[in-house]
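Ops channel
N.P.: pipeline sanity check, posting one input/output pair.
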């Protein structure tokens, strides 16, 4: 396992574009710390985001994992390129000639995906813990380490998304086309959902069906946290909008994403197994 992972990491690090994208991803993750310094004025009122409770425990786990999730697109490019480069540079064929089996080849990619997901999760955990200890109004250990399921959801979200990117890289073999298809699939899910939701007589049933779609299920793992803030809820109550959104992480959604993850990995293996390389 260590040998396979070392081979993949060496390929990524020696590729200049992949190295820059990976470093940029983690640099942008650290920019979550800069949110604390954002200030803006509404007339005579001076507002600093750090004072609005976004870094309070346990809300910070929800807030940071949601916004860190948007940055996964940087590593998506790395994952897709990682697979596309195998075909472009002939390293896949060379690995097989050198004695690596197709199964080991896929395992090496999966290990890389797991490592990226795990390191990203640990990184977000450390940043969130530091920000929370500095700005949170709550410092009880039981409160600090409550609602940690958002970190699990974040890890599963990355795992599922990167597995999808791996599958597209294996299937299409060209990074630009694979990323284009990823964008098209995203647009397809959301546009078709909007059409079905507004034109069929049972919106609840439509939502339940689309909850099983790959990108939609990943999106559902962590709901947006902004409307969860007391200030936003108070504004909503004043204008007569009652917030009934469910912000919890559900085991059923995690299982759906893990199922898609297994499907994408198994499909990637079957394609490589059957393809004439």
């Amino acid at each position: 396992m260590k040998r396979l992972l070392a081979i993949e990491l060496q390929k990524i690090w020696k590729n200049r574009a992949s190295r820059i994208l990976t470093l940029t991803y983690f640099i942008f993750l650290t920019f979550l710390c800069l949110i604390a310094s954002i200030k803006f004025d509404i007339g005579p009122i001076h507002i600093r985001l750090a004072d609005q409770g976004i870094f309070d425990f346990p809300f910070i786990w929800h807030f940071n994992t949601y916004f860190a999730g948007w940055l996964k697109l940087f590593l998506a490019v790395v994952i897709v390129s990682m697979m596309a480069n195998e075909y472009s540079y002939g390293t896949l064929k060379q690995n097989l000639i050198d004695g690596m089996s197709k199964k080991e080849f896929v395992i090496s990619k999966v290990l890389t995906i797991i490592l990226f997901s795990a390191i990203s999760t640990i990184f977000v955990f450390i940043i969130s813990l530091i920000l929370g200890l500095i700005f949170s109004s709550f410092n009880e250990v039981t409160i600090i380490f409550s609602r940690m399921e958002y970190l699990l959801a974040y890890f599963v979200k990355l795992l599922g998304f990167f597995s999808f990117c791996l599958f597209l890289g294996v299937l299409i073999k060209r990074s630009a086309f694979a990323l284009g298809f990823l964008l098209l699939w995203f647009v397809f899910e959301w546009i078709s959902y909007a059409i079905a939701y507004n034109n069929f007589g049972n919106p609840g049933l439509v939502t339940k069906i689309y909850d099983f779609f790959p990108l939609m299920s990943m999106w559902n793992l962590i709901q947006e946290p902004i409307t969860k803030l007391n200030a936003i809820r108070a504004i909503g109550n004043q204008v007569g909008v009652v917030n009934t959104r469910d912000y919890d992480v559900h085991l059923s959604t995690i299982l759906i994403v893990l199922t898609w993850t297994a499907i994408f990995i198994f499909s990637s293996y079957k394609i490589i197994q059957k393809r004439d390389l």
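N.P.: looks fine end to end. DSSP finds 13 helices and two strands in the chain.
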